[in-house]
Design brief:
Order of helices and strands: EHEHEHEHEEHEHEHH
CATH architecture: Alpha-Beta Barrel
Distance between the termini: 12 Å
Number of domains: 1
Strand content: 15-25%
Shape: globular
Length: about 220
């Protein structure tokens, strides 16, 4: 099996001590720092935007994995690149012209990723998968941390793994929502290779140890 990557979500970090949490991630075995951008329109919550990404980028030594849960993401592609994003994820459900959007992300110098909500089937990516660096599957409904894992995700991962192996073997499969040691192990077994974890990491007594153990599931 390929390498497993861990992407802790700073949505669950302590924003009164964000610098120390970023420093902990820098010194941990985390591979990416996952940043959830929510606009209160595409999802029923508002998180943070470009200024916070800029500050995190200045402190972080790990690549920023920026997940845009917003309407009209095309309007901000270059701004997030300037803010420091390495991976930029847009939602299939938010992009009318997905191929064009992916092209703009790559032309801006970032890795391009597409996210599918729990109800969106994998087969809709058949004609774009060859252009992607990563696919993010939501294993909870997007908008809030700490939700229960949706069991159907394992089958979705298996279907996506088949599609990727056929058309673009280097494309990563990332999962966000309800990730812990048990679900993480099953997701990796199904074919996932990037695990996003927010409350499971930052809510633990020793977050760096939790990250290390997640890599071994």
């Amino acid at each position: 099996m390929s390498q497993i990557y861990i992407a802790p979500s700073i949505l669950s970090a302590d924003f009164t001590n964000l610098g120390s949490d970023i420093e902990m991630l820098n010194n941990s075995e985390a591979d990416f720092i996952h940043c959830d951008v929510m606009d209160g329109v595409f999802v029923p919550n508002i998180s943070f935007g470009i200024p916070v990404i800029e500050h995190v980028s200045k402190m972080a030594s790990k690549p920023l994995d920026v997940h845009l849960m917003i309407v009209n993401p095309d309007q901000y592609i270059e701004s997030f690149q300037k803010a420091g994003a390495s991976y930029l994820t847009v939602h299939y459900e938010a992009c009318t012209h997905l191929h064009r959007t992916i092209g703009r992300i790559k032309n801006a110098g970032m890795k391009a990723s597409v996210c599918l909500n729990p109800h969106t089937p994998v087969h809709l990516l058949e004609d774009i998968i060859q252009d992607l660096d990563m696919v993010l599957l939501m294993s909870v409904n997007p908008g809030f941390g700490g939700q229960s894992f949706i069991e159907n995700t394992y089958e979705k991962v298996r279907k996506l793994r088949q599609l990727i192996d056929q058309k673009n073997p280097s494309c990563l499969i990332e999962i966000d929502g309800g990730v812990n040691y048990q679900t993480g192990a099953k997701l990796v077994d199904a074919g996932a290779n990037v695990l996003v974890a927010g409350s499971f990491v930052f809510g633990s007594e020793k977050p760096a140890d939790t990250i290390q153990k997640l890599k071994l599931v």
